[in-house]
Amino acid sequence: MIELKNISKKYSGAANYAVAPTDLIIKPGKIIGFIGHNGAGKSTTLKMMTGVLTPTTGDVEINGYSIINEDRKAKSDLGYVPDNPDVFLKLTGLEYLNFMGTAYGVEREVLNNRIDELANKYLMSDKLNDLIDSYSHGMRQKIVVMGALVHEPKILILDEPLTGLDPQASRLLKDSMIDHVAKGHTVLFSTHVLEVAEKLCDEILIINRGKIIYQGTLSDLKAQYQESESLEDIFFAITNEND
Amino acid sequence: MSKLKRGLLSLLIVVIILGVFASILVPVLLHADELQELIPWNIGILAMMICFYLTFILAIISAIGFTFSSGYLDKNLDNYSVLPINKREFVIAKLALVYYNVISLVILISVPFIIIYLVFAKISLIGILAIIIYTFTMPLVVIYFVTIILGTLMYFVNKVKNKALAKNVLFSLFFIVAFGLYLAFVITMSSLGEDNSLAQVTFIVEIIQKVGVFFFYSDWASNLLIYEDIKNLLLMMVVFIGGSISILYFEKVYFKGSLGFNEGGIRSKSTLRKNSKLPHYSMTKWFFIKEAKDIFKTGTYFFNSVMGNILIVVIYLGMMGYYYFFQSDTASVSQEITTMINNYLDIEIIIIITIVIGTFFTLFNNGAATIFSREAKSLDFINSLPLKQSRAFFGKVVFHGLVEFLTLFIFMIIPMLVLKISVVYIIASILVMFLIILATILLPVCLDLRFPNLDWESETAVVKRSKSIWMTMIAHLILISLVLGGCAALYFVLDIDYKIISYLVVGYYVIMSIVMIIIYRKLIDAAFKKVRN
């Protein structure tokens, strides 16, 4: 479970909150889509959840562990896929996965098997010995997703994971999210592609100008906005209301 | 930073550099008479000849390095090709940058030699004019040759599939060039006392003069060398026309040699992973491996960090190898040295020698000065991992410490082993080395943690324009002046026994190491915390 307790973020020198004080609970076993305009505060919120950014106020609890005071325990339950997959470019894919396994304390034998499993699933078996620097954007995204899954995290957080992916890679990732949730885990991802959120997500979080303006199921949202047929229409309607 | 601050900072750097030069020049000036008795030529003239030779070697190496890095390692090259820019102007702009960088180094190295010349030689207007013309034209001529050779090589390298291997082979060629030139310099200088030394020296200087396109006049060069003006004028015309041709040629080969060169590497040769045992490393070791791979697999990082260490080791080993294998009197010289060492050497002298060499060597590796800044793109990701970032990060520091240690080890310990010096002295030297490295490697790291450059877009920007780089340079110059100048002052001025001095300096490095560790631990946590805020 992810619990946001009065969490907010104001960057130094900024007049306004990037994320206004918010309370939120995300229960396990669901795919949650986090949608909003550019600059709405999606990445900032995700980064606070993963310990990348320190909240200005409040705290985040990951399965009961504070991300501020018990960060290593909290992060152990997380898998994070950043919006930019250009990390550790001079390591090979295999070294990167081994590194991630070490960071998350995965046992050697388990790690070995998991790497093979993920490599087969993501069609990267014959690419693992190459430098990540030589990968295309889609391949880099795949290796970062594999790295985030190598320790079977209870909560998988992905920031704009579908950007730049070809249809096959996109499909693989969506299937992975569904498989992950089927095991009782949680997936939270931000996206601009509302059709994907519509088809994939159990719950939707909508953020506008730093404020979470909706949390709930898509069906409840559609019930509120009966005249709108698609999530896209509802999204524009709800964000215009809150402007 | 305001213009005034920038100006003051530049002035400070100049003052410090001149101060260091002065600290080297003062002993030469003070003991000029003894030196003059040893050599047959005027010291000022000899200084200029050495200057011309050294700056020539430096110009070649730096021209190759700067042409390669600015011309071929710029990640934006592929983006420039779609712009409607004049390609000739683009090439000339790139070469102008190379010229500026090379000439800066040439001028910097020339300064102490010019000072010696001005003090000791009969100064003439022609002589000064010759130095100025040489200083500004020699790098031009060197760059012309480099563009032709490098441009041709890169044209064919870019057609090669395995670009990573090709890059590594080219880097190795730089070492061979540098080593060959330095060996030639050493052979020439080492034969100064022999009968045919004058012919050798004049031959070398003739080549340099022809490249530098300047002319000696007999009254300035003490009748050493005489040239006819018309021959040199014709030579000058040929060289400048040749220069224009070289730019046109470079323009033709450059774009085909540079575009697509910065691909990350090949993918086609990868094979399926066999289900073999994965190596198990700690997080500190993982960051050590990561740092090693980042440095060795990124040309810009490599050039600006460990290349200096590798170069100096290669040249040193080559020189030692030459003397050991090719000089006939090596055995007797070794025996003489061993006898002298056994009679006069004590542990304090070993400590002082280690300190002098170790302190000087801190200049060679700037990699530690961007250890945090270079991770700008990965910091968010590192912060998301469940690890103690400060402890894991130490792996990167250890890498640079190891590079320095290995360099010093080769310089100090291998000759000691060859000369069969006592094990106690060797252990003492290693311990002192360890102290020096611990203190000096953490200094640039702390500067980078305190003043990180996290807004760069290219690797060149982070290694050339980070505050920590020039702050490290100033700090190292101050350190060298303090330690070496301090030792000299304590011994020559205050007449303190060298044994006491050796232990004082060891004590200084012990205190500095402890202080740097404390500062590092505070700064690393603060740096990661700042990124999270």
List keywords for this structure.
heterodimer, A: 243 residues, alpha/beta, Rossmann fold, 2 domains, six-stranded mixed sheet, four-stranded antiparallel sheet, 39% helix, globular, B: 533 residues, mainly alpha, 77% helix
Describe the strand arrangement of the main beta sheet of chain A, using strand numbers. 6-7-8-3-9-10
Give the overall shape of chain A, derived from the CA principal axes. globular
* Content of β-strand of chain A: 15-25%
**Class from helix and strand fractions of chain A:** alpha/beta
What number is the mean pLDDT of chain B?
A: 76
**Which sheet architecture does the biggest sheet of chain B show?**
none
What is the share of helical residues of chain B? Answer: over 70%
Report the oligomer. heterodimer
Secondary structure tally, helices of chain B:
20
Q: Provide the gyration radius of chain A in Å.
A: 18 Å
Rg of chain B computed from alpha carbons, rounded to a whole number of angstroms: 25 Å
CATH topology of the largest domain in chain A: Rossmann fold
What is the CATH class of the largest domain in chain A? Alpha Beta
Q: Which residues of chain A form runs of ≥5 with pLDDT under 50?
A: none
Query: What is the approximate shape of chain B?
Result: globular
Provide mean pLDDT of chain A, rounded.
90
CATH level-four homologous superfamily name of the largest domain in chain A:
P-loop containing nucleotide triphosphate hydrolases
Number of domains of chain A: 2
Q: Strand tally of chain B, please?
A: 0
Strand content of chain B: under 5%
